Amino acid sequence: MNQGSTRQPCITVVIAITIIKLFLVPSYRSTDFDVHRNWLAITKHLPLSQWYFDDVNGTTVHTLDYPPSFPFFEYFLANNFITTFMIRQGYLDERCLALLGDHENDVAMDCVVFHRCTVIFADVIFLLGAMALSHSLFWPKIINTNAQDDARPQSKRCCCFILVVCNSGLILLDHVHFQYNGMLLGVLMGSLACILQAIKLDNNRQPASPTATSIAVATSMVTTATVTATTSTSMKLELVGSTLFALLLTLKHLYLILAPIYFIYLLRKFCFRINNGEENKLQFDPKRLILLGTTVMATLSLPFLPFLQNGNKEQMLLQMLSRLFPFQRGLCHDYWAGNIWALYLFAEKVCKFLAHKYPLLSKFIPSPFPVIGPIHAATCLLIGLIPAMMCAWKAACACASASHLNLRGPNQRQHAFLCCVVYSSMTSFMLAYHVHEKAIMTAIIPMTFLALTSEDYARLFLRMSTVGHFGLMPLLYRPTELFVKVLLNGCYLALSIWILESVHDGIERKANLLRGCDKVGLVVMAFLVAYAECFHTMIFGVDTLEFLPLMMISLFCAIGMVYCWVQSGIMMVKSLD
């Protein structure tokens, strides 16, 4: 399949998805719409020194609580010449960018269209990131192809791009519920693309044959200048990847969960070099550490500097931290995300009920359970990340060491790093403090790329995405959105199964990605949707046990996510065997 034949379906899918997003413009929007509308108003009308302090004289709770780069993005949306022209010509009501209290947040339809279009515009970054990461993973091999290498990289690249772009969870989150997750994930994918492309360049720099004869022959064919140029390109890519990740942290701080594996991987991969004069011995290079540290710290610090030029710097930093980490919101969101803490709170409620119902059991049943504070959640989270950091170190060793390079191909090292990203994201979703259900997308999107590489990864992706997207459905609680969310999730599941089974079909057997337990899970999800949307109110009425459907969905998703979390950890460890 040539490049032109794969490009056409990708363009067609992008156009079709964009049309769907435009059709969703009048649909339900959450309070996040009011949040971002208020942030546009803040960045348009107020000086920098007031951005993190303003609450419209105490009349709004939609205060700025993202790191500085995101407000600058909002500033660009509010102050560019197109927005100014639309306001002057009357195409956009001035109230759309006015500082309004929560009691007067009703805006005209032109404002809704404007905001929806900014999300579609920001998705260009998402598309570019998906394209870059697909190319980094599924690109024809340069040298040393073997029997296990992919024979259809271009078709896989197209399939992967389509699966990412059509993700129903992101469409529901960004273009119905209203957020900018696609843009942020696009930056993450761009960073990962640079890291993974550097791995392939390293493979081109050093031959992968295990025999000394082959090494000598291949080395004689590659000049010293070529090796140096390839090494330099690899280092530049890793610097760009680390810079993009640092930029991502200044856009949204919740991606800090991936910082440990980035740090461990780059410390081992970038800051150690091979000394060819001492039998390929690895040596730590402090100059590289300084270069990497300076680049990352400059990227992290630059967006903060304008806020610290005037006024009390300590007060500004404390105000930023209080906005970025609002621990007073509690362990869980109002709607429990399907993680460990949902199971913990459910077990507490069951024990409390049993202790009240059967007083004799109160001596044996702990009630109430110990309160989980931010420090406890952070401790559990750090412990859970240890396996990912160990695997990231091993993956970097395999890339940086000539002896290890012989044992593992570039694809396996790429998969290992992506597995670390997926597992770390899952660990954050399962153990972090006050997790929102949308955080699962940080694991699902990287897992999409792995799904094209093996049946085991594909099966885990289907389970993770199906349960994860199902957990997002209660966000759209109005009956009018029921058809949209069921149709989008159902179509995406069918598309994923069709594409992945087509990719993994063998010559002698047909791929069967759905097992019996998966089909049972789909039946249970269908029952839960029917019960939550129809049967509950028919049985109990509107105001009785209104929390029960949400709790049932959270518990089902928690059980499924625990399984996916464990499986992602097992696959991460196996990726370097």
Please tell me about this protein's structure.
This protein is globular. The protein has helices at residues 3-23, 31-45, 69-79, 81-88, 109-137, 153-165, 168-178, 181-205, 212-221, 224-251, 259-270, 286-301, 313-324, 340-357, 374-400, 402-405, 410-431, 441-451, 455-472, 482-504, 516-540, 548-574, and strands at residues 272-275, 281-284. Strand 1 and strand 2 form a beta hairpin. The protein has a two-stranded antiparallel ribbon with strand order 1-2. By secondary structure, the protein is an all-alpha fold. Helix content is 67%, strand content 1%.
Q: Can you give the mean pLDDT?
A: 85
Total number of β-strand segments?
Answer: 2
- Per DSSP, the total helix count is 22
Low-confidence stretches: 142-151, 206-228, 402-407
Strand residue percentage:
under 5%
Largest sheet: 2 strands, antiparallel
Integer-rounded radius of gyration = 25 Å
**Share of residues in helices:** 55-70%
- What pattern of helices and strands is seen along the backbone? HHHHHHHHHHHEEHHHHHHHHHHH
Give me the side-by-side strand order of the main sheet. 1-2
Shape: globular
Distance between the termini: 32 Å
Overall structural domain count: 1
- The computed structural class is mainly alpha
